[in-house]
Amino acid sequence: xxxxxxxxxxxxxxxxxxxxxxxxxxxxxxxxxxxxxxxxxxxxxxxxxxxxxxxxxxxxxxxxxxxxxxxxxxxxxxxxxxxxxxxxxxxxxxxxxxxxxxxxxxxxxxxxxxxxxxxxxxxxxxxxxxxxxxxxxxxxxxxxxxxxxxxxxxxxxxxxxxxxxxxxxxxxxxxxxxxxxxxxxxxxxxxxxxxxxxxxxxxxxxxxxxxxxxxxxxxxxxxxxxxxxxxxxxxxxxxxxxxxxxx
Length: 247
Prior knowledge:
Blueprint: E1 2-6, H1 13-18, H2 23-28, E2 32-36, E3 50-51, E4 61-62, H3 64-77, E5 84-93, H4 96-103, E6 107-111, H5 120-126, E7 129-132, H6 142-153, E8 189-190, E9 193-194, H7 204-222, H8 224-232, H9 238-246
Parallel strand pairs: 1-2, 1-6, 5-6, 5-7
Antiparallel strand pairs: 3-4, 8-9
Helix pairs in contact: 3-5, 4-6, 7-8
Subunit structure: Homodimer.
Keywords: Cytoplasm, Methyltransferase, S-adenosyl-L-methionine, Transferase, tRNA processing
Binding site for S-adenosyl-L-methionine: 113, 133-138
């Protein structure tokens, strides 16, 4: 898959693409990433890409024309009809379901905005989808783009050390959309805190039931909306409901 990232700061991506376990996806070409600076499509000696907003107000707005020329060229060089994605506070919150969809796609053109935002006329003409990381504002879309690329990369075959690792992720339908359970490793006792006995028992059915109960309890406490979704989807068993009734 091919992700074309439009950013005023392509240098921010260099360490991200070369570091950590997800680099396997980028180095192998499973997730191909190109970086394009819209200044390369701006005119004049200063390659200006922003200007003051009409109507007054603080900050600057990214101009439509350099972005339009940049995106048009990138789309012309692709063999597919790629969506154009803008990272924006008004976008849909990024979810596991969305990441799974992107992980199986042909990629997209990712727009990293800066300043007060982008000229709305460019958005209306070119953007097909907007994504948000949550109810807060970043100084630019680069961190959001890296978050999407990282989430997509780790779902590619062979990237994680254990092929089943991502099946245990929070929000995964394999776990009925619940939060993941707590995890423990050596030593068995740390600062007076012991690993739960059930995890040392070697009894796989008891361990799986304990983990399930922990997922249910944690989700009910922190994300009751996910419990409601799992219930509506018919993912909860009688044992699950019995446990939830005791909380």
